[in-house]
Amino acid sequence: MNRADARAVPGGGDLVKARMGELTMGSLGLTTNAGRAAALTGAVLALGLLTGCGGGDVPSTPAAAGQAAAPVNPGPPATLKQLANRTGCKKPEVQTDADELRQGVCKTGKGQYTVTTFSTDDGKQQWLDEARKWGGSYLVGTRWVIAGNDTGLLQTFSEKVGGNLVTAAP
Questions:
Q1: pTM
Q2: Could you report the per-residue pLDDT of 73-108, keeping only the tens digit for each?
Q3: Does 73 map to a domain?
Q4: CB-CB contact of 104 with 114 (8 Å)
Q5: Cα separation of 148 and 106, whole Å?
Q6: Which range marks the domain in which residue 20 is found?
Q7: H helices of 9-58, where?
Q8: What Å distances lie between residue 48 and 16, 34, 35, 45, 52, CA to CA?
Q9: Do 89 and 108 form a contact (C-beta atoms < 8 A)?
Q10: Quick one: pLDDT at residue 75?
Q11: Is residue 157 located within the same domain as residue 85?
Q12: Quick check: helix, strand or coil at residue 2?
């Protein structure tokens, strides 16, 4: 391996060389594949030790250290139009447009489903509690619910918009 080869190591060949004093395969006299593999393994281990990647008892988060974690601001909840677009529905048919909730039906080649957004978390929870009495599957997020009969479809939506899949029997 020459100096150009050492720089091409993914993840920090230059860092390994800088920390190990320009250590290269040729300087070790290693010319066989086994020797190269041993040197590469050693370089990876050295990089792990130099960067502190080796486990240990040091907590990685304030919560793990027994400290209160800083609250995360998830930002504003998604709108009906944003959720519909992310699920492949370009023009939801709005059925309800009120202060407390907006609801639209989406019909796509993948199926039919309802997207509902809420002005409050309490409003979402009340709606969901009532809807569960009728059964069905629900993808539940921050002040929104996507309801449909196809659990598989809702699962694919969760990869695009997040949320938790909830099913209820009538």
A1: 0.57
A2: 556 789 999 999 999 999 999 999 999 999 999 999
A3: no
A4: yes
A5: 10
A6: 3-51
A7: 13-19, 25-28, 33-51
A8: 10, 21, 20, 5, 6
A9: yes
A10: 61
A11: yes
A12: coil
